Amino acid sequence: MAAGLGADLGVAAAAFVATNIDNGAVTMALVAGAPAERAHRIAAGQVVGFCILVAVAAAAAALLFEFSTAVVGLLGLVPLAIGLRGLAALLRRQPDGEDGETQGRRKRRPLRPEQRAVGRSFTAAALITISAGSDNLAAYIPLFRVGGATHIAAILGVFAVGEVVLTWLVLAGGHHPRARSVMLRLGHLAVPILLCCIGVLVMVEAGTFSLL
Question: Where are the domains of the chain?
Fold first, then answer.
């Protein structure tokens, strides 16, 4: 019994780490590039998004429902859309046809933090986490289908501890002076590009483009 429980804990921990490295990195980038007072909202959005993924996986396992990974990959359109919106906003702030003096004034006047940040809200963080969760669903549904109540409780316990640790790492990394300095200078460009890459990567890995 103890050996079986230990195996459950180990598999759940491995699944959590493997499926949340990308989510943690993206959320940390969002925290580092956003105004400090929004950090906890972004982290909370990531937590809620993860909880939704776990709930969907558990429900699908209970109902013996099979997800089409290619269809789930369409969720990658969410971070792609947020990223493209951020890039479009940057282009609107840099119109062509300005003389050198005007452009110089624009370069000397830095963007405010709320202008730099993309995906800085609770809702955006939750949506980005969910949309990047096709690998989470693929890994978690089989886990919930094996074993009984003790097995599921062990998985949920590991996920809860893992999410607490991940949230701490996200906030600690996002508040690091060097990370904030870099993201406050480059985040207005880096975050939209990162979100676009995440969106495309999710669809590629899920085989979504095969639907076209």
Answer: 2-211
Helix, strand or coil, per DSSP, at residue 165: helix
Instruction: For residue 15, count other CB atoms closer than 10 A to its CB.
Output: 21
Contacts of 4 by beta carbon, 8 Å cutoff, 6+ apart: none
For residues 85 and 2, give the distance between their C-alpha atoms in angstroms, rounded to a whole number. 51
Residues 118, 80, 58, 63, CA torsion sign: positive
Residue found under tokens 């971070």: 79
Q: What is the pLDDT of residue 32?
A: 85
pLDDT number for residue 103: 47
Residue written as token pair 């558990």: 58
- Report the distance separating Cα 118 and Cα 48, nearest Å: 19
User: Which residues make Cβ contacts (< 8 Å) with residue 163, sequence separation at least 6?
Assistant: 47, 50, 51
pLDDT digits (tens, 9 = 90+) for 24-64: 888 888 888 888 888 899 999 999 999 999 999 999 888 88
Say how far apart CA 39 and CA 43 lie, in whole Å. Answer: 6
How far is residue 198's CA from residue 205's CA, in Å, rounded to a whole number? 10
